[in-house]
Design a protein that fits this description.
Helix content: 40-55%
Oligomer: single chain
Number of domains: 4
Order of helices and strands: HHEEHEEHEHEEHHHHEHEEHEEHEE
CATH architecture of the largest domain: 2-Layer Sandwich
Largest sheet: 5 strands, antiparallel
CATH topology of the largest domain: Heat Shock Protein 90
Strand content: 15-25%
Number of strands: 14
């Protein structure tokens, strides 16, 4: 993808945004690890709440009953590790508690959180702590029971457990990787999809611009599908194409008018030349007039081709086309001491296109082959499936460096035909392009060149 494209720049910006998100997430994660001690305390207190909730049951009279396990009894023995608990109902009445001084230790009645509340408790003195961590933390959790909402509060000295710290750190890291990597991947893929979706109008405009050519020079970009930022560019392009079309029409009209104007004086010159008695140079002048007349006709043909559109319902029988070309040019070949040969004339291949244009292209190629093939040799015309006509001569061939060049208007190769204008093969290329076909040049075994006219194949009902 080009570095200056909008898609590339948007993808880079989304990638940078993802990197920024990773940086922020890493910073938050690092902060969490630095405050891992609080997380450990919260996890430990949460387990105590779970154990207390599991010890609560509903008595026969509908009241709550607390049956502490032996482990919990030992944990909450007076003065043991500073652990205590307090269980209240929704209106604040104390249902169960650990010692009369629990509220004093907690510094007053705890809050009634919507879910849970983790909070520090006033630090103990060294004497009160009795060698334990002087810090104390509390946790209140809202719990729904069969008889209503209760609030369970637990508190204990700070837990110093390297194993637990490591376990929590690993759990946080695994969770971050497990969630973060897929999320970042999904984000980048979604960003690429959003970019593609957001620039679909640009892709549509590009396809429309690619389709504009001499045959539909009046076509314009559909501004209504363009993104707002690109509308001025699309309008400017359409305006530029209006000016190009105007100049193209002017040049085409000039070419047609000039060719028509030249036809009359050329006819007059030929008539006067034929009326004169024989003189030195008359044959040369006659050949020059033939050349000029051929050039004028080719200019008219080229100008007309620029406005022709192929009828999609018309078809060409390649066998009939090649037969017609051989019948038309056989006398010319014989006059020059050469022969024409048609192979696979019984091969029936139907292609879409205009026969009167296709025969003009084929005649140009065959005439060119007759002009270049050696005297006494044969020009072979072959029909090849799926839809190709090969015209094979025994001339000097076409060098690789000339094969594209000679298909351009007024271009001639190394072995140009004497008196040629360089328009014949250009007209062939133009006609084949109109049909959606191609012209290709290859070497012929044993010497010579092969000019191949390849047509698009005829669609069958099965093709849709």
């Amino acid at each position: 993808m080009n570095a200056s494209s909008i898609k590339f720049q948007l993808n880079i910006q989304f990638a940078l945004l993802a990197l920024l998100a990773i940086f922020v997430a890493t910073a938050i994660f690092t902060w969490q690890l630095r405050h891992l001690d609080n997380v450990v305390q919260e996890v430990s207190l949460g387990h105590q709440v779970d154990d207390l909730v599991a010890s609560i049951s509903v008595a026969d009279d509908g009241s709550l009953r607390l049956d502490l396990t032996p482990e919990l009894v030992r944990l909450y023995e007076q003065g043991h590790s500073g652990s205590l608990f307090l269980i209240r109902n929704a209106v604040g009445n104390i249902l169960f508690y650990d010692g009369d001084d629990v509220l004093e230790i907690l510094g007053g009645a705890p809050k009634f959180p919507a879910t849970f509340d983790f909070f520090p408790v006033a630090d103990l003195s060294d004497e009160e702590a009795r060698g334990l961590d002087p810090r104390r933390f509390g946790l209140t959790r809202r719990v729904e029971t069969q008889v209503g909402t209760i609030f369970v509060t637990v508190a204990q000295h700070g837990v110093v457990d390297d194993f637990l710290n490591s376990a929590v750190a690993r759990e946080l890291t695994d969770d971050a990787l497990l969630v973060g990597v897929p999320l970042i991947s999904i984000f980048l893929l979604a960003a690429a999809g959003f970019v593609r979706f957001s620039t679909r109008g640009l892709t549509s405009l590009s396809d429309e611009a690619q389709a504009i050519g001499p045959q539909n020079i009046r076509a314009r970009l559909p501004v209504h599908v363009a993104p707002t930022e690109v509308v001025p560019l699309a309008l400017a392009f359409n305006d530029a194409m209006d000016r190009v079309a105007e100049g193209f029409d002017h040049q085409r009209r000039f070419t047609i008018d000039a060719a028509h104007q030249l036809k009359t004086p050329l006819a007059v010159l030929r008539a006067r030349l034929e009326s004169l008695s024989a003189f030195d140079g008359r044959e040369t002048l006659s050949n020059d007039l033939d050349h000029m007349d051929r050039l004028v006709r080719q200019l008219l043909t080229s100008a007309r081709l620029s406005v022709i559109k192929i009828d999609p319902n018309e078809t060409i029988d390649l066998a009939s086309l090649t037969t017609e070309a051989v019948v038309a040019l056989a006398p010319v070949a014989l006059e020059r001491g050469k022969m024409l040969e048609l192979e696979h004339a019984d091969t029936r291949i139907i292609v879409p296109g205009e026969a009167h244009l296709a025969i003009e292209a084929l005649l140009n190629v065959v005439e060119n082959a007759i002009a270049h093939t050696e005297a006494g040799s044969t020009v072979t015309i072959d029909i090849r499936e799926p839809a190709t006509i090969d015209v094979m001569d025994r001339g000097p061939g076409v060098p690789l460096s000339d094969r594209k060049h000679i298909l351009m208007p007024f271009a001639q190769g190394r072995y140009a035909t004497p008196g040629g204008s360089g328009m014949g093969l250009a007209i062939v290329t133009h006609i084949m392009t109109l049909h959606g076909g191609t012209v290709s040049i290859t070497d012929r075994d044993g010497g010579g060149a092969i000019f191949s006219l390849t047509f698009p194949t005829q669609k069958t009902p099965e093709d849709g």
